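Q: Predict the assembly, please.
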Amino acid sequence: MHPVIPELSDPTALAAALGDAGYLADIGLATAAYLGMKMHRPIFLEGDAGVGKTSLAQALAEVTGTRLIRLQCYEGIDATQALYDWDFPRQVLHLRAAEAVGVTGTDAGRALEQSLYDRRFLISRPILQALEEPGAVLLIDEIDRADDEFEAFLLEVLADNAVTIPEIGTIRAESPPLVVLTSNRTREVHDALKRRCLYHWVAHPEFEREVEILRRRLPEASEQLITEVATAVRRMREADLLKPPGVAESIDWTHALHLLGARTLDRERAAATLGAVLKYQEDSVRIRDTVLAELAG
Amino acid sequence: MAAQLGSLSLIERDDPGASIIEVMVGFARTLRHAGVPASQERLQAMVAALAHLDVTRAADAYWAGRVTLCSDPEDLERYDMAFALYFGAQQATGGRRVPPPSVARAAPFELSGGDPHGERNSEQPTFAAQASRHELLRHKDVSALTPAERAQLKRLFDLLAPRVSARRSHRYRSASRGRVDLAQSVRRLLRAGGEPSQLARRRRRTKPRRLVLLMDVSGSMTPYAEALLRFAHAATRAAPARTESFTLGTRLTRVTRELRLRDPDRALAAAGRAVPDWSGGTRLGDTLKAFSDRWGQRGLARGAVVVLCSDGWERGDPAELGEQVRRLARLAHAVVWVNPHKGKDGFAPATGGMVAALPHIDSLVAGHSFAALEELVQVIADA
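A: Predicted assembly structure:
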């Protein structure tokens, strides 16, 4: 069953649809995503960790009513993990089974050899899955962690929306997937790849938007707690920390506080749960002495 | 931010006859002058993007251009400025504060002047004499060179090729010895019709580490700036994708892109233009912190060989410098400090900044002469 996909006439409509899916995008991000869908270009998202790059892909999949296919990059990733691989054990089994039955003659031998590279022995990895599934959302997460050899390979696939498997032939996407690439900028991604993409820098949300995000994600948390967390987190971002908290962290923090039964942000519980929002000891010490010191005890 | 743009019309801006394309081409030109490499291909993407949007709405035009023409956070500020300039909307940048253009200081070295062939016109010395003169030149402090000597030394820099030590990568290569490569072995087996044949083996590949050069360009380092930048250029030429260069002054400037120009003089001129704070003061601790915050911690310095070129004169708090070098040392594979004063007689790391940093660095080298820079090449290779 295909869910009804709302007709998205402009970025504002997409932003509204994303909002219904629980993701609050600003107009810049919505425009980038809208253009990505209309122009069939990959969307390249950069920004600090935890600003919601990955969640956008999830929300887009929900909006378009398709599956999200995720490829997490890491150093050393190659085509057998990203594209396809042969199911070697099954191939060997098939071969042994044929031998047991007794295949003789050159024609039968050739047929056997061909049957070894049958589609059923091919394991589809995320990119191939995305090409085979019409309109899928393909998230290529943290492309900066993969090495440059992989980038070159990715470029090829994204350019043609097709993959050539020597034993089978070319598999082409009926309708190209919507590709979302994310990067945390641990290294610079090659220009050739960026050129194919629509680039968007995802910034930390403004105060009102953050409050709204917290409200949506944690409807059970108290209104005052949410406002106070958003205020404290905003101050932390201005405090020049080693790792400024992202939205993911403020959601975690609010959740932790809520679970402890907090209705407001008090000093004691804030200090106890600080590990949910700050990830460096130096940062925790600084914030304890500044932002937390000003909270009501 | 684009919400505050109002409703400027792209078409009304010029005479009504001007097409959108012409306006866009003009805008791209402005953008290129502002330092955003808005290529033809990207421009076409912008025009294509506009076809899907409402071209008369400034916000749509703003975002269509931003997602297609920019490719780096550094581009965004310039894009905002160029957009404001070209479309005449002062509010176009909205909440983003654009820093006032800083008063540019000229680079402390002359690039175009001087006879490129050095002392060609003077009497032709014998081969042996020339060789010994080269040897002298190699050991001379670069701050004491005459323009002619400097021109001669320039050519020596072409010979430098700093290489960085390698680490084990996560990729494999096939090898005659090593662990069994299962996938490859089975592939061979299938090819042989199911007969077990020779096992394939594989080993980890190695991968050169990244080299990060941080060059102090404050007043006290001025005499060495050119030599250090030439060194950085040589390193960039040797491994363009694995070398990152920054200058540290009153602010941090990334000059990696500029130094990728192949011709050394053009590269240096470009870097000279990019750096706004030549021969100014320095707050080494603060700029190092800016580096670690914006680049180092994200991954640029992780596992890299970081070379910090400075005399350690710190106007700020030496303790802060010590702390920042410590942080850098934790991120990086090795931290090499290049201090030109080390090459001078009676040097002791006595400046407050040096003393604070010393416990955290892996090696301290001189780098005041060409020979000392050659030594630096070796230190980097062994790091």
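The longest helix of chain B spans residues 222-238. Residues 1-17, 89-104, 112-123 of chain B have pLDDT under 50 and may be disordered.
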